[in-house]
Write a structure and sequence with these properties.
single chain, alpha/beta, Spore Coat Polysaccharide Biosynthesis Protein SpsA, Chain A, Serine Threonine Protein Phosphatase 5, Tetratricopeptide repeat, 21% strand, globular
Amino acid sequence: MTISCIIPAYNAASFLRSTVESVLNQTRQPEEIIIIDDGSTDSTLNIASKIDGPIRVISQENSGSAVARNRGLDVANSKLIAFLDADDLWEQDFLEKQHSALSDESYDLSFSSFSNMDTLTGKFSQSNRLENSLLFNAPHYRQNEIAYFYEPLLNKLLMECPIVTTSTVVVKRSAIAKHNGFNPKLRRGQDYDLWLRMSEKLNFCWINETLVKRRLHDSNVTRDNLRIDRAQIEILSKWDFPGYFSLKSEYQAFRKRLAQLNFSVGWRLMKKDQVKESREYFKIASKLNLKYKTIAYLILSYLKF
């Protein structure tokens, strides 16, 4: 199966060249690399246009990574789509191992483990592994380091998303097309939203090897915890229905998670003195999972405003 690599890039001049080089150095080369410049104001577009290789560069007004990835999907010619953020790096055998994993026609999406790299210190940390995930207990069989899950993973992914970065993902283009791609209305968490929609009926596999380096720096979108939690609330609230869970205890655990996210947002907003807005999150948290701590903060929000 052929592979297209899609790289959305916004003000990524400091990282883009080395990111693309990690694609060009793959033991299994992609047929095409599509760089979507998302209205960058630095030299990203200029750098992208000067890199040699099977590269297409497309420029658009700044519209967010969901729109950029969808634009790449619209023009991609391959059966497999590999996503790579403009500041991440692939190990040399990333595509080779992903291609091998998806040679089983029963599976639609493959993702790998990853590690975080601090760009200031060069140190690595927090490599996600199957053994540390809720997915370890999901029905699966192993072929070397690849875990093939027997059944769709929706109820597991609603509790935890180990696909932290799209850079770990290779997916069949036809599978994404069935689910209408990334939601352009979401500026955060659009990848998680898509994985949930796909996981309701399709089959995933996990390459339990660290094949991606996620570079952490001050501009990382994923480091804004308040926005992340708000995005997760927006996404997960759509699945707040017991029919999506096989056990009552799973649904209760999901609502507890949703309550914790609402409390977290409320607490952060209160610290910013946005008391009236924080109160609404405390109200929702108390309805989802009644706790004395939540009630105490809800009362405090009335006393402060």
